[in-house]
Design brief:
mainly alpha
Length: 305
């Protein structure tokens, strides 16, 4: 990749230089062979044409007539100039063709020289690439050897470390608190009454006796609490029975009073009904015994009032 990159860069620079040289030659050719004075139609736009013209008749009589109608005084000169122009144009073409051939030969020689130079540089780059490849292979080989030695040393260290760790693990397991069942390892840092479950090996006889005493005390306390609750429930039963009897007596008295009130109300309604019947009888037979005649109605609307 480095070789290809160098070769591509060199070819690109060579191409730029070649285009630059061609542009220089083109500008030089335009400056020498394509100037405005060398054009065929330059005489039509020559700003100095009038100054350069000579009199049509060079007879010393400038004030006389120079040209008559239909007369072509410059025919011979123009024909001569045309022949000379054709000859110059042919000579110029021959020279240009010759110069073009010479330029092609020179360009071909330059191209061959450049190709030889490129081949020489390519050979140098290939040689440099081979040397670089050899040096890289040697460096890689040395690095792989050093890396293999380092890995072997690291494996030995890891193996020795594992051996030491296994020996320590066996020693700690054999003489550790797990196999010796040390009760001190089960103590928790949160309090003396708490233990670590995964390290606890069971209670000691003193702890079991203490737990048994606590259970007996709890049983006695439970029995005492049950007796107190039974006596309390018995007292409440007596109270509820007494309240039930009082409530029944109160309901009986209230029912009796309600029955008496209903009887009194019935007697009062009966008395009021008899009084109403007597009042209606008196009004119908004593107060309203006379019937109303037509004279009673004729007395209304008889005055202005």
């Amino acid at each position: 990749m480095v070789y290809n990159d160098c070769l591509a860069t060199f070819l690109q620079n060579y191409k730029k230089e070649e285009i630059k040289e061609l542009n220089k030659q083109l500008n030089r050719f335009r400056l020498i062979h394509q100037c405005p004075e060398g054009r065929k139609e330059f005489d039509l736009s020559d700003p100095q044409q009038i100054r350069r013209e000579k009199p049509l008749r060079d007879d010393g009589n400038i004030s006389g007539a120079q040209k008559f109608e239909g007369e072509d005084l410059q025919f011979k000169e123009r024909l001569k100039q045309q022949r000379q122009a054709v000859q110059d144009w042919l000579s110029q073409q021959i020279m240009e063709k010759k110069a073009e051939l010479e330029n092609e030969i020179k360009e071909k020689e330059l191209w061959e020289l450049k190709m030889l130079e490129l081949d020489h540089k390519a050979q140098e780059l290939q040689q440099l690439q081979k040397e670089y490849k050899k040096s890289m292979e040697k460096a890689t080989r040395d690095y792989n050897i050093a890396l293999a030695q380092e890995q072997a040393q690291l494996r030995n260290q890891i193996k020795q470390k594992e051996h030491n760790e296994n020996y320590k693990e066996l020693h700690n397991s054999f003489y550790g608190d797990f196999l010796t069942e040390n009760p001190q390892t089960a103590r928790s840092s949160f309090g003396p009454h708490r233990v670590i479950p995964n390290r606890w090996k069971g209670m000691s006889p003193e702890q079991k006796e203490e737990v048994r005493k606590g259970q007996l005390e709890q049983m006695e306390e439970k029995m005492r609490q049950i007796n107190i609750e039974a006596n309390f429930e018995k007292d409440w039963q007596h109270i509820w029975l007494a309240q039930g009897k009082h409530q029944q007596l109160y309901d009986h008295i209230a029912l009796r009073q309600k029955r008496n009130e209903l009887m009194n109300l019935q007697e009062e309604n009966k008395r009021l009904a008899e009084e109403q019947k007597a009042r209606e009888k008196y009004q119908n037979h004593v107060v309203y015994k006379n019937a109303v005649t037509g004279d009673y109605f004729l007395q209304f609307n008889t005055t202005s009032r």
